[in-house]
Structures are given as C-alpha cells and as structure tokens.
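Review form for a predicted model. The reviewer records the input and the model, then writes brief findings.
Reviewer: anonymous (R2)
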Amino acid sequence: MKAMKKSLIISLLLGILMVLSSVLTKVMTPNITSGQKVDINLETLIPTEFEDWKLDSSIASPIVTPGVKDLLEKTYSQTLSRTYVNKKGERIMLSIAYGGAEKTDLNSHRPEVCYAAGGFDISKMTKTFVDTTVGRIPVMHLVAKRGTRNEPITYWTRIGDSLTRGWIEQKLSALGYRLTGKAPDGLLVRVSSISNDEQDSYRIQQVFLAALLKSVRSDEQHWLVGRMNS
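Model under review:
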C-alpha cells in the first residue's frame, strides 16, 4: 500500500512538472535573438588524440540506428560521434549533441530515450559522479542491452551552466532559466563501451573523460561542463 501511494505521488509530481514545463515554455519569451552567434565547433573543440587515446578511424561513427543520425542533425545545432582506442585496445564511443539557445530540448538524445527507440533494453540507471581535473562531474550510469550486446553508458547534460542527470534535473534547470527570462543553450556528453564487465567499463570511461576534459583548452572547457569554477 505504501509503495502504491509513493508511486502515485511520484506520477502526480511528474505530471505537474510536465504541465508547468509546457505552460512556461509557451508563455515566457526568452531574452535571445534568432541570429545569436555560436562560437562552439565540436570538431575542433574535441581533440582526435590525447594522452593514451586516439581516434579509431577503422570504426564507423557509433550511431545506435541508421535513422538516428538524420534525426540528430535535424534536431541539434551540432553533433559529434567518434570512437577512441588506447594502447591496450580498449575502445570508448563518444557522442556529443549541442543545441543553441533555440534548441535546448535534448530529451530525444538522452541515452535512455534514443537507445530504447533503437530497440535496446535500459537498466541499472544510477546517478553518480566522476572526478576530473576540472571538478567533480555529476553523471548518469546506465546499461543498454540488445541481444548479446551489453553497453555500459556514462552521460551528463549541460543546461546553461548547470550539469544535470536525467529528465527531472534537466527540466528543473531549464525552468529555472526560463523564470529569469533567459533561454540557455544545451549540450549532452555520452561515452559508452561494449562489455559485460560494467564496473570495469565505468572505470575506463572515467579515465577517458578525465583525460578528455584535461585536453580541452581551459578557456573552452565551459562548453562541456559549464562555468564550474565561476
């Protein structure tokens, strides 16, 4: 009985949040212009080689299904998909989607959404952190599985200067900006690997992310993690 009441309360709160999000999106006018200049360039922002990692050009871009790439390009201002490999032969798939101030709804690119749309079963979603030289990054861990393919995933979403994990945090952050009359840009960073050893995969992914953030110029790191030190 208690579990049922808790489930009903959570469903009610989610429903209220969805309604508020829809209403505020329609009635609030963000303080932006349609010609707002965007200085980010994912192709040059993210190095093709850093520390023990280099671009694995022998593997195609890690898109879940053939139709996803076209959808991402239509929905977001910029996308980047690469596979990296280190000297041990460990591979990490990296995917980044950027939406400018007029394209901040990254819902359809959250892994639990786009992987499910590609026929994967999603499980073991856990909020956690990865430690890097630029700070402690809040991330989401989850596992996508289809047939014999088991894919542990780490991701975070940046909304303006806020780092979020999952739909609720993402919506609350976006609503907070809209209440001030601003429309933030947004970016989602995802890394994943094909492995049945999920904990080891998360360890390797943390090493990769720490090296990646360290390799990005200090004056451009805010594109990935916001202005954490401001």
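Findings: The beta strands are 49-50, 53-55, 78-85, 91-99, 121-132, 135-146, 149-159, 162-164, 186-192.
Further findings: The mean pLDDT is 80.
Recommendation: see findings above.
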